[in-house]
Amino acid sequence: MSIFQQDNPFNDFMSHIGDMALANVAWSVCSLPIVTIGASTQALFEVARAIDDCDDDHVLKRFWAAFTRRFGTNLVTGIIFLAFYGLVGFDMWYTSSRSAGNGDINAVNYGICAAIGISARCARHTCCPWHHAATVR
Fold first, then answer.
1. Who has the most CB within 10 Å: 102, 103, 116, 127?
2. Could you report the per-residue pLDDT of 31-79, keeping only the tens digit for each?
3. Rounded Cα distance, 46 and 67, in Å
4. Alpha helices (H) in 32-128, listed in sequence order
């Protein structure tokens, strides 16, 4: 097999790398408004799964179709979770500014807020099955 043939392993590998890079650029552009990060991540997972299955024709078309498929639902849940994480961040800022001299209380507060944030992230996949279903084979 010659290096100049179209179907050699090196060209296949580099094609997969290029397709993933293109999908990641599309994810970055579509995630610029932070509330659309859920929809763009779901679309990226769908495209990555298609690339892994060697069904990588028209990466941008597949990404856009996956991005717009459940955009409204992803947008609403993204706004809800963004507001929740904003509230957790405000809580961390407020309690650390009120107890500036006591590092132990701040450490406990950060641990509790991190646990709540991780629980909310896990609850998103439990309570919103349309997010989890897009990432499962």
1. 116
2. 888 778 888 888 998 898 988 887 777 889 999 999 998 888 888 888 8
3. 9
4. 37-52, 59-69, 71-98, 103-127
DSSP 14-29: HHHHHHHHHHHHHHHH
Place of tokens 């010659």: 2
Helix (H, G, I), strand (E, B) or coil at 2: coil
Q: DSSP assignment, residue 136?
A: -
DSSP run (H or E) holding 133: helix 129-133
Q: What percent of the chain has pLDDT over 90?
A: 12
pTM of the predicted protein model = 0.64
**Position of tokens 């650390």?**
96
> How deeply is 127 buried, as exposed, middle or buried, from its count of CB atoms within 10 A (0-12, 13-18, 19+)?
exposed
Distance of CA 76 to the CA centre of its chain: 15
Is residue 28 exposed (0-12), middle (13-18) or buried (19+ Cβ within 10 Å)?
exposed
Distance CA 85, CA 117 (A): 7
Which helix (DSSP H) or strand (DSSP E) does residue 9 occupy? helix 9-30
Q: How many residues make up the chain in this entry?
A: 137
